[in-house]
Amino acid sequence: MGTSHRRLIITTFIGVLIGYFVGRSFQSVSFSKIHLPTSISTSFDIAGKEETINQISESPFSNGSSPRIYVSTNPRGAELLPPGIVVSESDFFLRRLWGEPSEDLKKKPKYLLTITVGLNQKKNIDRMVKKFSEDFQIMLFHYDGQTSQWDEFEWSKSAIHVSIRRQTKWWYAKRFLHPDVVAAYEYIFIWDEDLGVEHFNGDKYMELVKKHGLDISQPGLEPNNGLTWQMTKRRGDQEVHKVTEEKPGWCSDPHLPPCAAFVEIMAPVFSREAWRCVWHMIQNDLVHGWGLDFALRRCVEPAHEKIGVVDSQWIIHQVIPSLGSQGQAENGKAPWEGVRARCKNEWSLFQNRLANADKAYLEEIGNR
Fold first, then answer.
1. Per-residue CA distances from 204 to 200, 310, 314, 345, 349 (Å)
2. pLDDT tens digits for 109-167?
3. CA distance 39 to 37
4. How many CA atoms lie within 13 A of 106 on its CB side?
5. What pLDDT does 60 receive?
6. Of 301, 317, 352, which Cα lies nearest the Cα of 226?
7. Contact 193, 116 (CB under 8 A)
8. In terms of Cα–Cα distance, which of 215, 227, 198 is closest to 313?
9. 347-348-354 Cα angle (round to 5)
């Protein structure tokens, strides 16, 4: 064998040995000490990834086996997850992008105030919001698409703003106030923008609601041109009332609407338990909520005791037809006329759907 051949064999052998030892050494190298060029490295510490990998390796399922988990009591769609990792409810609490999550909130709001607003009512909304303490999370639904103009108010900077043009509060409520999203709040206010609150205080209102066991309520209305029902008329001699007398023939039962178990849809307040039921009754395509007030009693029992009007904290309905201006002129009719016609039609549709649902349920029960 020639010298050149021996030299080639020795060189190859040495190369293999060097490759072996270099490979072994890389297994013990900490990737946290590798300095990647900034063009390809992220802003996160790679050591954090290494720690995550170590945590994963400690999982009982790290050997590649598929976890045999199926928990039928988990929320729909989460049956394959261990119950301890499932978070089925949320909230609108604002959180920081830094620090410990457990230290994000100095104080958790207990109640949620939602108002559907347009910029023309900005001053009135400011007066309304100032009647509520830090115990209330503020959420504004903007039907005119204008949100940045509200930044002049300090409270607006910590409020939740949702902006979608030409929609009603019940459209917003169905899509953004799912019971699991607002479960952190004891009570949910779903209010119109044209309410005078000179004689109203949010904290005092909540004290009376809890004192009298009201799951669905509203402030009493000062009698004026905007008063429709006797039930919601303010009484000056008591804190709360739950029944009233209406025109002859209007109430087939003194415990049924509109003589009892009734509030209007302009300024309702729901406990989270009642709202979980009411939300499911709101129809996706019926956006005005007409007829809902007569059906709220289905969500609490006994309704004539748990639905009431708070008289000593009262409001004034200013009757500003702002929603009508969001309509569209058709067939020679003003925008507000089309909106009004749809409201009436929705009332009829809702009543028919509810009656048909009752009938179908009773037939199903009868056939069992």
1. 8, 10, 11, 38, 38
2. 999 999 999 999 999 999 999 999 999 999 999 999 999 999 999 999 999 999 999 99
3. 5
4. 1
5. 64
6. 317
7. yes
8. 198
9. 90
Whole-number pLDDT of residue 224: 74
Q: Tell which residue, 143, 125, 196, has the closest CA to residue 339.
A: 143
Task: Name residues of the chain where pLDDT drops below 70.
Answer: 1-67, 225-226, 323-327
Write down the residue that tokens 């009642």 correspond to. Answer: 274
Judge whether 114 and 94 are in contact, CB under 8 Å. no
Torsion angle of alpha carbons 17, 20, 21, 27, nearest 10°? 180
Name residues whose C-beta falls within 8 Å of residue 205's C-beta, 6 or more positions apart in sequence. Answer: 219, 269, 310, 313
Peptide bond into 258 cis (omega under 30): yes
Distance CA 41, CA 26 (A): 20
Provide the whole-model pTM: 0.82
The token pair at 345 is 């039609």
Rounded to whole angstroms, the Cα distance separating 45 from 47 reads 5
H-helix or E-strand containing 53?
A: helix 46-57
Q: How far is CA 346 from CA 164, 288, 319, 339, 349, in A?
A: 21, 7, 21, 11, 5
